[in-house]
Amino acid sequence: MSVETTTTATAAAPSVFSRLMSRRVRIATGLVCATVAAVALSAGGASADGGPEDPHGDLTELTAADLGLPEGPQMMAMAATSGDDRPDFQMPFKCGETWQGASRAHHSPSANAIDWTQGGSTVNSPVVASADGVVSKVRDLGGSSYGKYVVINHGGGWSTVYAHLNGFNTSTGATVKAGQQIGIVGSTGNSSGAHLHYEQRHDLVDRRTVFNGSAFGGSGSWSKSLTSKNCETKTPEPKPEGPGDGGTGSTGMVDLASADLNGDNVIDVAAVEASTGKLWLYKGAPNGTVASGGNRVLIGSGGWNGMSNLTGGDFTGDGKDDIVAVEESTGKLWLYKGADNSTISSGGSRVLIGSGGWNGMSNLTALNLNGDKIADLAAVEKSTGKLYLYPGNGTGLNARKEIGSGGWNGMSNLTGMDLNNSGRQDLVAVEKSTGKLFMYPGDKGYLSPRIQIGSGGWNGMSDLIGGDLLNSQLSDDLIAVQNSTGKLFLYPGTGSGGLGARKEIGVGGW
């Protein structure tokens, strides 16, 4: 896949994620690596027409701990009492919805897993529980493997897995009913198009999928449509509440971006409402707070759930921050100019600054490394794990340069901010394997060796963004969503490259 700007095109070779073999529980006999094939994208997601198209690559094997299930003798005892007493599994979608399911012989982790798409309405569509159970795991692996995923334990050794989600509507330990919403469809992790990856497991092993008592699937590559009969929800589906208005920990907003869109030198928070596709602005105040849900401003009337990797910065050099985003269906990169009055240009007035291939990049973030007042764009190449910088020139992007030689697929939530008060932005990112937070100081167009600024637990946070929200501090501040509660927190910058004690600035629903 190539990534093109208006001035350059760079080829990228596919690669396959390596497996972690030591002390792992195998999830399928004769498990083989899936080949990362060329992916044909529909208007809203990955193709699922029964051909060889593969909307995701190899997925890391999941242990009992990864599934949130008991390990060792306890797990085996639970499975031994179950026999083949499979729950009455239904499709993971709302009653009456028709979806296209597909698999293939070398589907990872096995051909029993199903990838689901629904044409142009795939992205951010509700995902519901297949049967009653208890949520045993809500996890975000960032740009690798299953990405954001949920596991439900249905008892008797049976569990279901829902992967590549864009957001969560549940939390670990929650009791859920069949048909109750648990998340929304996305393209997180090792995914190249919006779809739901779904598994039914028994004793950790991925089993033949059955819906409403009938087996679904066949040998080799196959695809077919099915209408959901998940129609017996016994409790009302939880309605996500607006950010700042309370909430139950559901993540109703996705793709947060920081940008000063009202010209007061304090960053505002832009975010996409997953259920409507609307883009909202939460104005920042110099005391380190953002507007409540009741005072938010609509700046995009719809369709933003078809965009991804939103980031904010002054890409035109006119002193006004702009929004940049990837159009998932085409891979094009678009610039929405900021007007300094809490608005951005409409879709008809947006500017094309990348002609294609940008859905092969992840973790896009505005990152001005040379201090020239024009935002540059940093992004991770999914196939290689390399980090590239695309210098801004005021009208678009110049030819990219490599600023990270590899391994950046192991980092998540990249954000650009001046954390050490140097006048150049630094790169902040979470190490997925440890949950540690690192700063990579900006230095004359490149990055200096990293410095640890958070000792752990940061893989429980998402949508990290940076900017000057608390004007009394000497440097930019960090904002992040807590996955388990949906709360929004501010971590004030200290001016010396560190972060102060966090404070809650959004009580739920984020």
TrEMBL record:
The keyword Signal applies. Residues 1-48 form the signal peptide. This is M23ase beta-sheet core domain-containing protein. Residues 231-242 have a biased composition (Basic and acidic residues). Residues 221-230 have a biased composition (Polar residues). Pfam families: FG-GAP_3, Peptidase_M23. SUPFAM superfamilies: Duplicated hybrid motif (SSF51261), Integrin alpha N-terminal domain (SSF69318). Residues 219-253 are annotated as: Disordered. Residues 123-203 form the M23ase beta-sheet core domain. The keyword rRNA-binding does not apply. Keywords: Signal. PANTHER family: MUREIN HYDROLASE ACTIVATOR ENVC, PEPTIDASE-RELATED.
